[in-house]
Design brief:
- The complex is a heterodimer.
- Chain A has four domains: about 120 residues, Sulfite Reductase Hemoprotein, domain 2; about 170 residues, Sulfite Reductase Hemoprotein, domain 1; about 70 residues, Alpha-Beta Plaits (2-Layer Sandwich); about 160 residues, Sulfite Reductase Hemoprotein, domain 1 (2-Layer Sandwich).
- Chain A is built from 17 helices and 21 strands.
- In chain A, the strands form four sheets. In chain A, strands 6, 7, 8, 9, 10 and 11 form a six-stranded mixed sheet that branches. Chain A has a five-stranded antiparallel sheet with strand order 1-2-5-4-14. In chain A, strands 3-15-16-13-12 form a five-stranded antiparallel sheet.
- Chain B has one domain.
- In chain B, the strands form two sheets. Chain B has a six-stranded mixed sheet with strand order 8-7-6-5-4-9, with no helix packed on it.
- The termini of chain B are far apart.
- Classes of the chains: A alpha+beta, B mainly beta.
- Chain B: It holds the Pfam family DUF8134.
- Chain B: InterPro entries: DUF8134.
- Chain B: This is DUF8134 domain-containing protein.
Chain lengths: ~600, ~100
């Protein structure tokens, strides 16, 4: 039997929802009939609007999809202005203030406390400036990710940006692909560093060479650059999967055909009766890669598929735990002779005033363009050599550093209980506190300049915890008999040529003992590693019991003000935080 | 009177008559001998799988973890509240809940 969500989608979904959304915005939040709210909130997701958790009724998270994380000149300013004007609610965050933008692990932007009545004005401003929330959430093509510096990267094998732009143009607003069984996450990477993180996406295009020609006597062969195809990756729900190789190579001009074929295959064959079994990773589990390929060939494309080409996975370094370019922080050469400068945005959150300041700096020192990485950081592109020193001296870069502490640089965190319904624990502010404490109290070995700690509030894995050196995942435990927020600790995850998910070695550590646990872990790593051994290799060389002993949770002078059940508050940082003190819906003001 | 029961937002909520009534992240005590070896399961509610009714009672199948022993899995039907006169009342969070098959 189809689920409620499928029934709602079959009644109305996709582009047609926009008119109704605008009518509700015009008439006010309370105009949504009580018995239709669940249905409309589900449909609004397709337009990037996600109703915030209870206690925050009538306020929405708005996600802006920026393909490949590319913000063209002027667009960051638009985001900053919208955040400043509209992303202000009744709650003030003690670290980030009243208005901020979140850069996500899928190179998108999230704003909070958005009121329904403001949506038409926000959409108008976004669209005037070439931005959109379309399909940023919901069951369809999500924001396409990749190497954020596509087209500029000196290490690029092939420029993936035209391919990504074409896919975005083809599949955003496309009624044939608007209603899929579940979300559809696509990655297209043209660089040899693996920074598109294709392995954890539903569909991945990765750079690969294919020898073509030579069909007849005397014909010369040549190596052509295109993409190998993988399907069925994803991290959510304690069911992490790496995307499976379906033995297909595709030239750039055919990517859209293959991507559309696979999207249609998923549309027609994915599970619409059980949302927990709906992602394409489960279909690949059931069918196997061979059957996916055969079905694609026989039913969804009208040309002969090539077999896989020669990939460059042995060069992958992004989030790989060792080697060069584990992230894109710092100054790097572009192929046009200018530079891109990756700046660390701790947990991906930037105050609106800082967003606007950065937009000014990007115009002053670069082209005005800014790009977002999958590690929640920003990259200012097109900075000439003779402007680099002056740019690096800007006061804003004291906070958003191109050379941060490894603990700042490696921090990734999801939204958490501040706004999210699924999360079990507070995350962003906690990860800020963790990073600051670790920076002040823990010394990594001198040769270790990257150490990734990802904090996800639940098994949805929005912070991609399974691919970090230290993976933290929201849990509960009892401490002195009282329920407290806790974290499971996983170790040794990462991507690269041979990606691996973290092993969950220590369970349910009370949150105030986590910094001490990491300090003890680092101490053991420093003392017991082989010379120059990376943390990931160190973890691989020990069994779970040994690693559990290294973690060794311990209270320290770190204090955690959010030990209680933050989900029982209307907003965890409010002075009067109980549900009874929750603000009225904005329409009632 | 018909009561509308739904699991929403990828299992984050139980919605009763279009109102988000029961959420994940709570700790529930369960009398559920089949879930783990503990006398009482001390369950972190991570995800709602299904919601149903038993007379006036509302019940759910829940994915979670016993924080006493670490066992994970999906429970049988756990009582979560009652509907009386069209109003939903959640079971006291400290109550021990007897889990059905």
């Amino acid at each position: 039997m189809p689920t409620d969500v499928e029934n709602w989608k079959s009644e109305a979904y996709g582009n047609e929802v926009r008119d109704r959304l605008f009518e509700f915005a015009e008439e006010g939040y309370e105009s949504i009939p009580d018995d239709e709210r669940d249905a409309w909130f589900e449909r609004f997701k397709w337009w990037g609007l996600y109703h915030q958790r209870n206690g925050q009724e009538g306020y929405f998270m708005m996600r802006i999809g920026t393909p490949n994380g590319v913000l063209e000149p002027g667009q960051l300013r638009t985001v900053g202005e919208i955040a400043d004007e509209y992303a202000r609610g009744p709650g003030t965050n003690p670290v980030f203030g009243d208005a901020y933008a979140d850069f996500t692990t899928r190179q998108s932007i999230q704003l909070h406390w958005i009121e329904l009545s403001d949506v038409p004005a926000i959409f108008e401003k976004l669209e005037e400036n070439g931005l959109s929330t379309q399909q940023a959430c919901g069951d369809s093509w999500r924001n396409i990710v990749g190497n954020p510096v596509a087209g500029k990267d000196g290490q690029e094998v092939i420029d993936a940006w035209p391919v990504i732009a074409e896919l975005n143009e083809t599949f955003k607003g496309n009624d044939d692909h608007a209603n899929l069984p579940r979300k559809w996450k696509v990655s297209v990477t043209g660089s040899a560093d693996g920074s598109g993180q294709g392995d954890i996406n539903d569909l991945a295009f990765e750079p690969a060479y294919k020898t073509v020609g030579g069909a007849g006597d005397g014909d010369e062969t040549e190596d052509v650059v295109g993409f190998n195809v993988r399907v069925g990756g994803g991290l959510a729900r304690n069911e992490p999967r790496l995307a499976r190789d379906i033995d297909v190579w595709v030239p750039p001009e055919r990517v859209s055909d293959v991507a559309g074929g696979l999207s249609a295959l998923f549309r027609d064959n994915g599970d619409r009766e059980d949302r927990y079994n709906a992602r394409v990773k489960f279909l690949v589990d059931e069918w196997g890669a061979d059957e996916v390929r055969e079905t694609l060939q026989e039913e969804y494309v009208d040309f002969e598929l090539e077999t896989a080409g020669r990939d460059v996975r042995e060069e992958y370094s992004y989030n790989a735990g060792e080697g060069e370019r584990n992230d894109l922080i710092g100054v790097h050469g572009q192929k046009d002779g200018t530079n891109f400068v990756g700046l660390n945005v701790l947990v991906g959150r930037m105050g609106a005033a800082d967003v606007l300041n950065l937009a000014d700096l990007a115009e002053e020192y670069g082209s005005g363009e800014v790009r977002l990485s999958q590690r929640q950081n920003v990259i200012v592109t097109d900075v000439p050599d003779d402007a680099i020193d002056e740019f690096l001296d800007e006061p804003l870069l004291d906070h958003y550093s191109p050379s941060p502490s490894p603990f700042m640089r490696g921090s990734v965190a999801c939204t958490g209980t501040e706004f999210c319904s699924l999360s079990i624990v507070e995350t962003k502010n906690r990860q800020v506190r963790f990073a600051r404490w670790l920076k002040a109290n823990v010394d990594l070995p001198d040769d270790v300049d990257e150490f990734h700690i990802h904090l996800s509030g639940c098994t949805a894995s929005c912070a991609q915890p399974q691919i970090a050196d230290v993976s933290l995942r929201g849990m509960k435990t009892r401490k002195d008999g009282d329920p407290v927020e806790a974290l499971d600790v996983g170790l040794g995850g990462g991507l690269g040529e041979d990606p691996q998910f973290a092993r969950w070695v220590t369970q349910r550590v009370p949150v105030d003992e986590v910094p001490g646990a990491i300090a003890n872990l680092v101490e053991s790593f420093a003392a017991e590693r082989d010379e120059d051994e990376s943390f990931r290799a160190f973890v691989a060389g020990h069994d779970d019991d040994e690693l559990d002993a290294f973690v060794d949770p311990e209270e320290t002078d770190y204090e955690d003000p959010m030990m209680h059940n933050t989900k029982r508050t209307w907003y965890p940082y409010a002075e009067n935080d109980s549900m009874e003190d929750a603000p009225s819906t904005p329409a009632d003001d | 009177m018909t009561t509308r029961l739904r699991v929403l937002d990828d299992g984050a909520w139980i919605s009763v008559d279009d109102s988000r009534e029961v959420r994940v992240s709570e700790l529930w005590r369960l009398d559920a001998p089949g879930f783990c070896a503990c006398d009482l399961v001390d369950l972190v509610v991570e995800n709602f799988q299904e919601v149903g009714v038993d007379g006036a009672g509302v019940e759910a199948r829940v994915y979670g973890q016993c924080i006493a022993c670490g066992a994970t899995g999906t429970t049988g039907w756990v009582p979560i509240g009652r509907v009386r006169g069209g109003e939903f009342t959640e079971i006291d969070r400290s109550a021990v809940r007897r889990v059905g098959p």
